[in-house]
């Protein structure tokens, strides 16, 4: 089944990438309530640590927010990120202010059976439930997401920098193609999303533009909120999520080492996983920042890497030539 978003020229111009703290917390509930990480091995350590801290958050309320029959969450706990970078407090305030009828509607989508005791309690007092859920998510974020947030935020920001560059260089088609085969830019001004929808649906222009948010807690792109009542919004797997796990430094191919040297080959392989700063590369590879800087200078002089300033940080990424060399 497929969902197609129709975008006008103006909406296409409003296409943007965003980062949402509460979105990561909400998506992580699917991992937390599962029996294991399955194909998300980079979260094994996070899952172990988060479960060990279960006394620090409201397990019953959070588990009641996950569907018992499908990967589904109440739409209101994932507010659409605004154009300014949202804070956790901002997003939790939005959740707490959700109208009672919306709370009831969204909670009722979580189960086809009789609601469990915790869900029933929330449904019986939806105005109080919105505040209770916002507080539960706030506590959970500080217990589960805050410990990894510095690394996770850097991974998310590096992804947004990369995708934004792809959007600027090659337009929406190139940016979407790099995210997932399930997202396709159509020549007639639409975005086709091959998903688990129960029917084939086309969503007309909303005036909001397309919003894309990277996440470390999804395996494939997912769409948020009712497609008939919200701006087009898709969360997708972030590049470089493996950095959250206990990963080994990947050894470069022998041919690449012979061609450009071991030090520069290791940097090329690392940048193929995720854009990184000099300090991040040094920490990952276990070498000095000076050695990394010297290698980056040579790689840049030969057109294999380029650099983008993101706030106070300079991130290095492979150029198209560098990616071709990595895969040759």
Layout: helices, strands, pairs:
Blueprint: E1 2-6, H1 9-13, E2 16-17, H2 21-33, H3 44-52, H4 59-64, H5 88-96, H6 100-108, H7 117-124, H8 126-145, H9 149-177, E3 183-186, E4 190-194, E5 201-203, E6 211-215, E7 222-223, E8 233-237, H10 254-260, H11 262-273, H12 278-285, H13 289-301, E9 305-310, E10 313-318, H14 320-327
Parallel strand pairs: 1-5, 2-6, 6-8
Antiparallel strand pairs: 1-4, 3-4, 7-8, 9-10
Features:
328 residues; alpha/beta; Arc Repressor Mutant, subunit A; 2 domains; four-stranded mixed β-sheet; 14 helices; 48% helix; 13% strand; globular
Describe, in plain words, how this protein is organized in 3D.
This protein has helices spanning 9-13, 21-33, 44-52, 59-64, 88-96, 100-108, 117-124, 126-145, 149-177, 254-260, 262-273, 278-285, 289-301, 320-327, and strands at 2-6, 16-17, 183-186, 190-194, 201-203, 211-215, 222-223, 233-237, 305-310, 313-318. It is of the alpha/beta class and 328 residues long. It has 2 domains: 1-247, no CATH class; 248-327, Winged helix-like DNA-binding domain superfamily/Winged helix DNA-binding domain (Arc Repressor Mutant, subunit A, Orthogonal Bundle), CATH 1.10.10. The strands form 3 sheets. Strands 3-4-1-5 form a 4-stranded mixed sheet. It has a 4-stranded mixed sheet with strand order 2-6-8-7. α6 (100-108) crosses α8.
């Amino acid at each position: 089944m497929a969902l197609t978003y129709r975008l006008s020229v103006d909406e296409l111009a409003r296409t943007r990438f965003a980062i949402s703290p509460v979105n990561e917390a909400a998506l992580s509930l699917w991992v937390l309530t599962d029996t294991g990480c399955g194909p998300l091995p980079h979260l094994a350590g996070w899952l172990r640590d988060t479960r060990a801290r279960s006394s620090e958050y409201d397990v019953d309320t959070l588990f009641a927010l996950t569907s018992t029959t499908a990967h589904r969450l109440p739409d209101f706990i994932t507010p659409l990120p605004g154009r300014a970078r949202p804070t956790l407090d901002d997003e939790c305030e939005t959740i707490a202010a959700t109208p009672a009828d919306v709370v009831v509607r969204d909670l009722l989508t979580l189960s086809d059976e009789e609601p469990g005791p915790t869900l029933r309690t929330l449904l019986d007092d939806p105005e109080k439930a919105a505040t209770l859920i916002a507080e539960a998510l706030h506590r959970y974020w500080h217990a589960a997401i805050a410990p990894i947030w510095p690394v996770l935020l850097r991974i998310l920001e590096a992804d947004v920098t990369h995708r934004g560059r792809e959007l600027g260089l090659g337009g929406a088609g190139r940016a979407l193609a790099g995210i997932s085969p399930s997202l396709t830019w159509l020549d007639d001004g639409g975005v086709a999303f091959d998903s688990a929808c129960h029917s084939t649906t086309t969503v007309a222009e909303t005036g909001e533009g397309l919003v894309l948010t990277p996440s470390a807690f999804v395996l494939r792109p997912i769409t948020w909120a009712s497609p008939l009542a919200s701006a087009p919004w898709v969360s997708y797997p972030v590049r470089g999520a493996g950095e959250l796990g206990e990963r080994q430094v990947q050894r470069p191919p022998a041919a690449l080492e012979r061609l450009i040297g071991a030090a520069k080959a290791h940097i090329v392989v690392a940048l193929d996983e995720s854009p990184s700063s000099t300090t991040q590369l040094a920490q990952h590879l276990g070498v000095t920042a000076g050695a990394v800087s010297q290698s980056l200078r040579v790689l840049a002089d030969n057109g294999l890497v380029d650099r983008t300033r993101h706030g106070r940080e300079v991130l290095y990424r492979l150029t198209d030539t560098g990616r071709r060399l990595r895969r040759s």
